[in-house]
From TrEMBL:
GO terms for biological process: diacylglycerol metabolic process; glycerol metabolic process; triglyceride biosynthetic process. It is found in: Cytoplasm, Perinuclear region; Endoplasmic reticulum membrane; Lipid droplet. Its EC number is 2.3.1.-. It is an enzyme of class 2 (transferase). The gene is DGAT2. It is a multi-pass membrane protein. Pathway: Glycerolipid metabolism; triacylglycerol biosynthesis; Lipid metabolism. GO terms for molecular function: diacylglycerol O-acyltransferase activity; retinol O-fatty-acyltransferase activity. InterPro entries: DAGAT. The keyword Lipid biosynthesis applies. This is Acyltransferase.
Length: 361
């Protein structure tokens, strides 16, 4: 308001310099407001994904069941009929949408942290790949942004490669949530799906598996670089059965965006988490980020910390229809060594000291 009054008074006095000064002040205020709007859009874009991750499936299920009891029951019947016929689509790679993957909301999502994808080697379109993504963090935000959207340019950096981010199969039993996930190229992390993508979907497929899973999320905390990998060998066996190259991938900053209450081994809290992990497939975490309107309050919005996902050099894997345990152990050891090497090569570039060591559990 003051800048407008200043401009108006300048006109009355006929002083050109006063008008110019007032306009400069006005533009600076406009730019400030635009900057604030951009930041809020970034916050909202992140929050919508967090809420989708946490409650969209349950909310859609409840709404659909309620619809059965209303005058709109026919809509629910039609959708359930569609669901029956479409039940196995997620197991065949889903139904990705380039339009959804290129939504502007994902660019705001990327810029909030910000998130970036670093390519270290080319990938051949004549091969298939399994990316091991580390660490899980609380929600795997880097994995989602880099491989389920085009916000960081994954298709441009790896032309001819189709990324499929693998997540809990239970998510694809949730109405509407399954459609949302499939549109981004997300698929169930089970043997049927991975077998199909690596054997009946041609070449140039890259399946991203968050190897540490729920167990790794329980140790996620700022300042800690640890992965759950030493006894995780199923993904290596799958790679050998299909001759899919293994690609170690480390996401610096993934553990920095949320703070979590860590329950000690043997405590009642850890007991509950392990029971959920065993019978349901995920482990409930008590965590918090910042508030919607202020970084000084607690909330579900993650902290604005940089996340940099570095895709390492592929490890050539032979095709062995019946790999022995010795074969699996050999390539698993090679993978662990490659992951540690990748971490050591890039850690100082992203704010970690030279003395930082990747903890492999």
């Amino acid at each position: 308001m003051k800048t407008l009054i200043a401009a108006y008074s300048g006109v009355l006095r006929g002083t050109g310099s006063s008008i110019l000064s007032a306009l400069q002040d006005l533009f600076s205020v406009t730019w400030l407001n635009r900057s604030k709007v951009e930041k809020q859009l970034q916050v909202i874009s992140v929050l919508q994904w967090v809420l989708s991750f946490l409650v969209l499936g349950v909310a859609c299920s409840a709404i659909l069941m309620y619809t059965f009891c209303t005058d709109c029951w026919l809509i629910a019947v039609l959708y359930f009929t569609w669901l029956v016929f479409d039940w196995n689509t997620p197991k065949k790679g889903g139904r990705r949408s380039q339009w959804v993957r290129n939504w502007a909301v994902w660019r705001y999502f990327r810029d909030y942290f910000p998130i970036q994808l670093v390519k270290t080697h080319n990938l051949l379109t004549s091969r298939n790949y399994i990316f091991g993504y580390h660490p899980h963090g609380i929600m795997g935000l880097g994995a989602f942004c880099n491989f389920s959207t085009e916000a960081t340019g994954v298709s441009k950096k790896f032309p001819g490669i189709r990324p499929y981010l693998a997540t809990l199969a239970g998510n694809f039993r949730m109405p509407l949530l399954r459609e949302y996930l499939m549109s981004g190229g997300i698929c169930p992390v089970n043997r049927d799906t991975i077998d199909y993508l690596l054997s009946k979907n041609g070449s140039g497929n890259a399946i991203i598996i968050v190897v540490g899973g729920a167990a790794e999320s329980l140790s996620s905390m700022p300042g800690k670089n640890a992965v759950t990998l030493r006894n995780r060998k199923g993904f290596v066996k799958l790679a050998l059965r299909h001759g899919a190259d293994l690609v170690p991938t480390y996401s610096f900053g993934e553990n920095e965006v949320y703070k979590q209450v860590i329950f000690e081994e043997g405590s009642w809290g850890r007991w509950v988490q392990k029971k959920f992990q065993k019978y349901i497939g995920f482990a409930p975490c008590i965590f918090h980020g910042r508030g919607l309107f202020s970084s000084d309050t607690w909330g579900l919005v993650p902290y604005s910390k940089p996340i940099t996902t570095v895709v390492g050099e592929p490890i050539t894997i032979p095709k062995l229809e019946h790999p022995t345990q010795q074969d699996i152990d050999l390539y698993h050891a090679m993978y662990m060594e490659a992951l540690v090497k990748l971490f050591d090569q890039h850690k100082t570039k992203f704010g970690l000291p030279e003395t930082e060591v990747l903890e492999v559990n």
